[in-house]
C-alpha cells in the first residue's frame, strides 16, 4: 500500500474537519506598490471570525512592485516569517550594520532573498526591520506569516534559510519547527537556536511549517505535528494555503475539499501522527504551504 493510500485510509477513519477559506473572501488591499490579500484580520481589514487559528495570527499573500517595499518599522512579541514565491526581497534590520550591494556571506546579516528562501524574525523585546524589492523591473511575490510566541519578552533573533525545490517535489519539506529547548530556554539555548527538526528554522511556538510542490495527478501527505516532535499532540490545527501563481493549480484536501489558487483550508480534528492527504487535481503543479499549530487560540 502506497504512502498516499495509507494516508487516505487513515483520514477516512477519523472525523477530520476541513473548512475552506476562499480567496475571494479574504481581505484585500491594493496600495499600488503593494497588492495584499489577508487570510486573517490585518491593518484596515477586520473580521472577528478570522483573527487567529491556533498560534497562527497573520497570513498575507503580498506582491510588491519594483523599487518599493516596507520601510523600516518596529515589531515586538511576534514570530514573523516570509516565504518567497518569486522575485527578490531584501531584508535589513536593527541588529546588524546596514549594508548595500551584494549579499553578505552570512545570511543572518543581510540577505537578498529569492525563490526557495525563507526569512524569519523573532520580534521579542523589539526589533526594527525593512523589506524592500530592490529589483528594477520585477515584482516580488511572497507569503508574510506571523505567529504568536509562547512567551513575551524574548531576545530578538533573525534567520534565513534556503529549501530545495526538488525536495519539495518529493513530498512535504519541513521548514519551521519549535525551538528544541522550549519556552524555558536559557539565554545560551536561545543563542544556539536548535530546532526540534534538524535543518529547519526554530520558532518560539508549538508550530510547524511545511511546503510541497505537487505535480499534476500526484499527491503528498503531511504528517501532523511531525509525528511526535510537538509539545501538544492532541487537537492540532492546520491551515493549508495554495498561493496564486497562475498555473491553474487545484488540490483536494483529505479526500473531500477542493482548493483553487488563493484558497486555503482550516483543518481540525487531527492529532500528531495523523496524515493529511493533498492531491493535485488541477491543470498545473500545486505549491502547497501548511501551518501546523497547537490548538490554543
What is shown here, in short?
This protein has 297 residues and is mainly beta.
Structural class: mainly beta
Basic shape: globular
- Order of H and E elements: HEEEEEEEEEEEEHEHEEEEEEEEE
Q: How would a crystallographer describe the biggest sheet?
A: 7 strands, mixed
Describe it.
The protein is mainly beta. It is built from 3 helices and 22 strands. The chain has helices at residues 3-12, 165-169, 187-192; strands at 17-21, 27-30, 34-38, 56-64, 68-75, 79-86, 89-93, 111-113, 117-122, 127-133, 140-147, 157-162, 173-178, 201-203, 207-214, 219-223, 236-241, 250-253, 257-260, 264-270, 275-280, 286-293. The strands form 4 sheets. Strands 1-20-17-22-15-13-14 form a 7-stranded mixed sheet. Strands 2-3-4-11-6-9-12 form a 7-stranded antiparallel sheet, with no helix packed on it. A 4-stranded antiparallel sheet has the order 5-10-7-8, with no helix packed on it. Strand 18 (250-253) and strand 19 (257-260) form a beta hairpin. Mean pLDDT is 90; it is low at 97-108.
List keywords for this structure.
about 300 residues; mainly beta; 7-stranded antiparallel beta sheet; 3 helices; 22 strands; about 5% helix
List the helices and strands and how they pair.
Layout: H1 3-12, E1 17-21, E2 27-30, E3 34-38, E4 56-64, E5 68-75, E6 79-86, E7 89-93, E8 111-113, E9 117-122, E10 127-133, E11 140-147, E12 157-162, H2 165-169, E13 173-178, H3 187-192, E14 201-203, E15 207-214, E16 219-223, E17 236-241, E18 250-253, E19 257-260, E20 264-270, E21 275-280, E22 286-293
Parallel strand pairs: 13-14
Antiparallel strand pairs: 1-20, 2-3, 3-4, 4-11, 5-10, 6-9, 6-11, 7-8, 7-10, 9-12, 13-15, 15-22, 16-21, 17-20, 17-22, 18-19, 18-21
